[in-house]
Design a protein that fits this description.
single chain, 257 residues, alpha+beta, Trna Endonuclease, Chain: A, domain 1, 6-stranded mixed β-sheet, 5-stranded mixed β-sheet, 11 strands, 19% strand
């Protein structure tokens, strides 16, 4: 008689199930390998990109919160510190007076801004104050309001109608590394010291008259400016300001035939 083989059938079903289980595992491995391959290709395309940023981006896509890095925390702290270190100053019509502090005196000691008063405060000219305001070094208050650069220019123009032309020349010379001071006692707008020389170490090299490109000068006015430079033993320079605020300089020398 032929033997029945029900057990063998059960074994075959078991083996089939095992095979199915193995196939599932291999498919998962292949998917993992494909994903790893994609990540490697992406890393090759963007070699300088840190792994942490990738993780945080993936977390953002899945809806998880992005962890704050230490670098971002330090940047925020440094910004807050910069805001605290701004020197307070008061708008006093034709001059700006800073608070009496060591930071304010360093403006004069290091970069020759303004002049130190007896009470320890630093007196700044209007162009100096706007330049430092734009650089974020000082905070200027008028009444109870902190002035923006635009607000400051409006107030300064009421005091000096030619303020913007003068400031364009001052800013350009300061950005070139020259120390620029007022020259009212010489009958000019500014006196300029050569690079590396501070007031008191040597005399100024130039006196500068800022002029708008559309402005006209008579020969008498031009000769008067030349005489001022000659009498003070300085070189005369004209700073011509165009509509865009760019400055072109002309140096004029006194010559005898």
């Amino acid at each position: 008689m032929a033997r029945k083989t029900p057990r063998k059938k059960k074994q075959t079903t078991k083996t089939r199930k095992k095979k199915k289980f193995k196939v599932d595992k291999t498919s998962e491995k292949k998917q993992a390998e494909k994903q790893a391959g994609k990540q490697e290709e992406q890393a090759k395309k963007e070699p300088g990109r840190p792994a942490e940023s990738k993780k945080t981006e993936e977390a953002g896509k899945t809806g998880k919160t992005r962890p704050v890095k230490k670098e971002e925390k330090t940047v925020k702290k440094s910004k807050a510190k910069v805001n605290k270190d701004k020197i307070k100053a008061m708008f006093a019509r034709e001059r700006i007076l800073t608070e009496s502090s060591e930071e304010a005196r360093l403006l004069y000691d290091k970069s020759a801004y303004g002049m130190v008063l007896e009470d320890g405060r630093v007196q700044l000219s209007l162009p100096e104050a706007l330049y430092l305001l734009e650089k974020g070094k000082i905070k200027i208050i008028s009444g109870r309001k902190a002035l923006s650069p635009e607000d400051f220019i409006k107030k300064a123009r009421k005091v000096e109608p030619n303020f913007w032309i003068r400031y364009c020349v001052f800013k350009d010379m300061r950005s070139r590394g020259y120390i620029v001071k007022t020259a009212l006692k010489f009958g000019a707008d500014f006196r300029v010291y050569d690079r590396g020389i501070r007031p008191g170490q040597d005399h100024a090299r130039w006196i500068i008259f800022p002029v708008h490109e559309g402005e006209t000068l008579t020969w008498y006015e031009f000769a008067a400016k030349n005489r001022v430079a000659h009498s003070t033993k300085k070189r005369l320079m004209m700073g011509i300001v165009d509509e865009e605020g760019d400055v072109t300089y002309y140096e004029i020398k006194w010559m005898r035939p």
